[in-house]
């Protein structure tokens, strides 16, 4: 069910790629990073389905290499998804107009583009090579019944995941929240200037004359102002749409922080006490419940929030299309004149 929900969300979000659904920071957000993150999320759901079917139906019960690899695929694709999204956050922040040091914080540090690429590829390749390689080797030594090396590579894999989760918690806790705060600031500023409305432009011909070449010309006076009133329905619709996008950002960011805090603690505990936990029925059931049910519930909350925001976007977009067909004037915040021959 979780993978079906992920697939539906992927299709619905993909259908929105051509529309103007991004306001303020979302216009600057790296769409390629969002698309790639969504694809990794879908792969994570597929890997989870395959893993569940494998263990429920007891497919290849003695092939521990396959079992470890398919189980590990869920971790890798999930973490690559959030790596990609976080890289998009880093690429977005410097391009925002509100990215300025405040009185309380004058040392906002955002990595450069080259450093972002280096960190992304370093962390991704390290995760794939170390974690996935350790899972293959742990499966191999489980088949060979070499308990010492099995414990070594199991611990290596889990410690790698724990460190990765801690880095993600730091990234989302600092920069994910910063992106949300800057986006809300942009919303508050525009609200203070009369709300989010379509730009309207008034054009008047103020003079008709002939130049020295005998050609007739016109002075056209264009007035650009920020609409203070506008269509009430349009303003409210745009504000509601923006609020749903903010809520979607918050849901994703906070759920990512909670999820990776949980998995960082779980990974380190399992890394050093996995024998005790997995050999005790009560402890193993508690760990399985927390690892599967708890995480799936968080994912479902995220998906419901995203799906609701996307559905609201479709509704708001249709309303805006009707409003734009009625409004004939435009407005902006500038006033200038030009001569057209």
TrEMBL record:
Keyword Transmembrane attached: yes
Transmembrane segments annotated in the record for this chain: 40-60, 80-98, 119-141, 161-180, 251-274, 286-307
UniProt keywords, alphabetically: Membrane, Transmembrane, Transmembrane helix
Name of the featured protein: 9633_t:CDS:1
Tree of life domain: Eukaryota
Keyword Transmembrane recorded: yes
